[in-house]
Amino acid sequence: MAGDFNIRDSLWNSSFPYHSSISNNLIIIADSFHLSLLSSINQVPTRYADNSNDANSVIDLMFLQCDSSELNNHFIHPKWCLSSDHAPLIIMIPIAEEIINMCKRTISKDSGEDESFIKDVISSTKNLDVLKLLDIPSLEKAVNNLAKDIDNAWTKNSKLTNITKHSKSWWNNNCNRNLKRYRSLKSLED
After folding, report:
1. How far apart are CA 23 and CA 184, in angstroms?
2. Contact 68, 92 (CB under 8 A)
3. Has domain 2-90 been given CATH number 3.60.10.10?
């Protein structure tokens, strides 16, 4: 949660001498969403006064999920204001490398395999021996066996489909090019 909260307070601006109950309310609301106020790496104003009667202030704030030490690193860029009187707040969010599957299993509607899959699932459900479910371990075993049966029915009745540019209507040549570039360079920017 980030933005111009328009609240001056000594909690986030050490050069401001006062504390407000409104700030307490903001912190309580953020905490109810498990968000914590972040301190910027550089302690500079976020809003720059356009006249000499007002002081520069810190009124743009950023809140992130509690206990996220790798995300507690936002930076205020006063030189990037351009025509605005507010400085942008920037945070680098690390993104873990992800394996993108190029194929998936599908069952087409009205293909015959869909009916066969449903019949196999119904058969597995009917074959459950519910009279032996006397305790939690026996229930867990039955649930796990049913899950395996459903997984086997899916594998038996589905077919492996390659994901191509035609798989999704939004996929285009730019997506192909960018995916190829990402795979070759492994750069987070791609």
Report:
1. 48
2. no
3. yes
3-state SS track over 48-88: CCCCCCCCCECCEEEEEECCCHHHCCCEECHHHCCCCCECC
Cα distances (Å, whole numbers) of residue 170 to 73, 108, 166: 34, 21, 9
Closest listed residue to residue 102, CA positions, set 177, 168, 163:
163
Q: Give dist(CA 182, CA 166) in Å, integer.
A: 20
Q: What Cα–Cα distance (Å) separates residue 40 from each residue in 5, 21, 93, 178?
A: 16, 22, 14, 33
**Domain residue spans in the chain?**
2-90, 97-190
pTM of this prediction? 0.48
Q: Where are the alpha helices (DSSP H) in the chain?
A: 21-32, 113-126, 136-157, 173-185
Yes or no: say if 158 and 113 are a contact pair by the CB < 8 Å rule.
yes
- The pLDDT tens digits of the residues spanning 100-154 come to 767 888 888 888 899 999 999 999 999 888 888 899 999 999 999 999 999 999 9
